[in-house]
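User: Hi! Is it possible to get a structure for several chains at once, not just one? Here's what I have:
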Amino acid sequence: MTHATSELDDIVHQRVRLGILIIAHEARRAEFGFLRTTLDLTSGNLGQHLTVLEKAGLVHIEKGYEGKRPRTWVSLTAAGEAALRDEITQLKRLIHQIERAAARRPRNSG
Amino acid sequence: MSMADQMSPSFGTSHDLLASTRALTRRVRDAQRGAWFPLALFGLATLASAPFDRYGTTRTCSSPNARGYVCSIYSTWSFIYWPTVLVLIYIVVASFYARRSRERGVGTRVTPYVVVGITIAVVLTAASVWLITHPSPSGSIVGLPLHPGSPLWTAFYRLVSPAAAIGLALLVLARIERNVALLVFTLGYLAIVLFLFSGRHGPVMPHPSPWDFLPRLFIDGGVLLIGSFGFALAGRRGGRSGP
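Assistant: Yes, the chains can be modeled jointly so their relative placement is included. Here is the combined structure:
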């Protein structure tokens, strides 16, 4: 039986990138500023993570203007939706495996 | 050292990740929600309909039979006021959510709510007009075995009212916003609309007052305005509690 950790995708499993995917999934479309504030990141740091996700084909980045203000919107691609679903499934599976192992342990072992 | 001990950092990390996932989901939903705005508009529109109910009333009675007359008392102006106002409100609500989405930086799929809301408003207005223009001498509704004046009979008439049209569409908004509190509020509102005292749709009204619609109006509008206030307050608190 493979352990759940072996199925985790390193690109998605990283905390900030997982946060970006979660927000984009919930919001359908999230603006750069909202992501930066919500995830408490600098613009540069967020930009780096977005580049990683975009290169992996997990997010779609759309740049435009609203009046004179430049705006960047991030949305999930179909691959991003699938990757996020897999990640959540694996996390739950991992927790379940460990809880089962802990339950099998003799209670007086500690 | 057991496997569980070896895995405990990962276990903690996985738990933390799932917990932060839920926290992020909550923050996005808080940013998306704006149900107080449509509730306020619908509440005000309900109260503002009073002159139309009072001065735009028409009474049509069938020829007398052994049990007396069967009369339909309805507000003609309401059939113009409500569809117009509901469509206008849904357009304003759509632009409110669109502007809010731009300002806050999170998308909200409000189009299904607007489309369903307008559809329900049009369909229920048409049904209401049909029921009034096709009164049954026995008082039954479209051949349904409903005893005139029974709670179900009254609920059926209330189901084609503008108040019910507002409530049914709010169920869609609760689904879109994934807002359990709004769902519970809407179900309570619909229960009040459909089942709380019969008002002017009661079967026996020997001397109906031209103002007998007011208690019902104040209850329907008041509940919507109280709901609006509550959701606005909850939204402000949610916003303040965020980082």
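The longest strand of chain A covers residues 59-66. The CA atoms of residues 28 and 59 of chain A lie 11 Å apart.

User: Great, thank you!
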